Amino acid sequence: MLERIWPFTRLGRDKFRKALDEALEKAFEGADFEPSSELVEEEGRYLLRAELPGLDKKDVQVYLEGPFLVIEAERKEEQRKRHLSEIYYGRIYRSIPLPADARPEGIQARLRRGVLEVEIPRAPSPGPSRRSIAIEG
């Protein structure tokens, strides 16, 4: 068997790569895809960005579930004869814990050029946490 997929010949490398791809597909079948994301802190807000190329806003849901912001979508597979496919098709799911000072009211989301941007307002800072206390006596 090893001779048939020996990776040091061109034909062997191609067979090896195909066998590996098929094994990985089976291993991760049914697994959700997590989009590349970043959450940055800005003055008065947090900004979450998630890459969702090729999706329209009708395909994407953003909602709160407890202390988490959830992004859910699905990329439908088109039935065509493929010669190469490296695009993920299926369920896309990402759950991101909100920071402690995030305010759930006023969250806004927009999808532009394949990037989902979610603005999350921050609660105003309570000020200094140190306060003097008078001593009686």
UniProtKB/TrEMBL annotation:
Keyword Iron: no
SUPFAM superfamilies from the UniProt entry: HSP20-like chaperones
A GO biological process held by the record: response to heat
Domain SHSP: residue ranges: 28-137
InterPro entries, sorted: A-crystallin/Hsp20_dom, HSP20-like_chaperone, HSP21-like
Stored Gene3D superfamilies: 2.60.40.790
PROSITE patterns: SHSP (PS01031)
Domain of life of the native organism: Bacteria
Protein name: Alpha-crystallin
Annotated organism of origin: Calidithermus roseus
Gene coding for it: hspX
